[in-house]
Design brief:
The complex is a heterodimer of chains A (about 100) and B (about 500). With about 100 residues, chain A is mainly α. Chain A has helices spanning about 5-25, 30-55, 55-85. The N and C termini of chain A lie far apart (about 55 Å). Classes of the chains: A mainly alpha (about 100), B mainly alpha (about 500). Chains A and B meet through helix 1, helix 2 and helix 3 of A and helix 6, helix 7 and helix 10 of B.
Chain lengths: ~100, ~500
Amino acid sequence: MITTQHFLVLSAILFTTGVIGVLVKRNPIVIFMCIELMLNAANLSFVALGRHFGQVNGQMYVIFALAVAAAEVSIGLGIIVAIFRAKETINIDEMNLMKF
Amino acid sequence: MVNMSANLDAILPAIVIMVTGFLVLIGDSCVSAWRSNGKGLNSGVSLVGILIALFFTATRLNQPVHNAFSGAIIDDSFGRCAILLLLIAAALAVLLSTTYLENKQLQHGEYYVLILFSLFGAMLMVSSNDLITLFVSIETLSVALYVLAGFAKTEERSEEAALKYFLLGAFAAGFLLYGIALVYGGTGILTGNGGTTNLALIATSLRDLSSVAPPLMFILGVALVLVGLAFKSALVPFHMWTPDVYQGAPTSVTAYMAAVVKIAAFAVLFRFFNALTSISQYWLIAVQVLAVLTMFVGNILALTQDNVKRLLAYSSIAHAGYLTVALSAIAGKGAQLAVEALTFYLFAYTLMTMGAFGVLIWLSHKGRDCQTLSDLKGLVKVDPAAAYMMLIFMLSLGGIPPTMGFMGKWLIFNAIMQSGQIWLAILLGFASIISVYYYLKVVWMMCFSEPDKQTITGHAIEGWAVQLAMAVSVIGSLLFGLVPGFIQNMLGAAVNIIVR
């Protein structure tokens, strides 16, 4: 029997994976995929909780979150393309024109 | 639906801004197809839109509270005050932008469209009373700002700033959304009859069930939402993006971003914690720690900067710290004073930050941005007007009387003393003393050094737009510092209603 707890634990694992990925990866596209993982972990929680409470809110929120994530993807990829044109690399470690 | 007009009425200024944004978007493509020199039109239309919205907001400042869109939007006096500040900041930013962008050959219509759309997001943010509305509007603001930060397409620094801002902003959005999910679940567990993300409902259920400890899930959710919002408002230790983004973005964008994001983020932080006052024992310590860290780290890191934009970025972090101090007084006694101080300080911060960045914009030449301290060396002999204005803004930022910055700091000090957190007030004093050093370093560079070949050759931008913006900032900073009563009365009456 799969209960709401299972969903929540899975979503917590996904979220943590996403956070760790953001912190250790050096390629912005992979980092961005990890951020998507975090957002989708939240979406999973929303759906599971909405089902648990018997409310439609949870499912509804996911639509908002998806729309926002889609907007972020388009902007993010645009920025990554722009920076590749300017610097011929997208490695995070080489984004060091400005520091302390 | 019958209520729809009432609903739309509640967000009328935001709608005006959105419509103006679309007008500029369509108008720009029509005009540039028709004639090549219609560029001044974009900023003109944007400014008119902002002024119309300003008029609508100012005339309804003290109307009763109005819930709209099933409680997702609250149209109260605090929100209207914040919208007023947002609109003033945006108007100043548009005035500062025009000639600067022309000099940098960035005078595209999209710039004003993005400014207006992000402003729309910020205006919804400060009036949202539901965490999901809050999330969507924060992202509306942020997504437009990511593009604006990278608006100077040919400059590597600007692109780098955009990438950093984007990655960390999206990271923060992940925390925020997951936090909202946990708050949703937590309230469901607490009340036993379904979750909610509505702040008003959360506040009532917490107050009704104050004998029960809130579930762990709820506390975790609140913590994650705080992390997400702390990223947006650049509180230490979530501030790492701020200096890079402020330095890399075009100066006009930096000025806009510094003011608008701060106003919106702190209005939202206030609304969020105002709903949680009945469980303040769980979050107050976190806010206090963030406040102390932010004040001291911001001020200490600013000491060694030799880039003025970067220095102002660290100073804006420190100011976020002072604002967080005000935030930690909203739970107990002195709540009324704290809200008043928060709003007053946001106003002061808007004028002085816009002004300081405005001076840099004023001095920026074609192909050479005024950025470093050595650019300002001996400025008083080269361009006294710019130097004296910078002097006033630096004194105001440092909180030296008779400026608005001093009044703001004094109000925060007062509020925090009222709430009984005297140690926090003392730390606030110490942090301000540190900050005076680097503000005076800028003044020293300008007034007591001899100009050399690195010094910028006076202001580069003629034209009434920049001068008007500078005049408003200078006169505002001085006038409301000397006669704070007027603003205080206005804000006091306005925020009276929301504090219980």
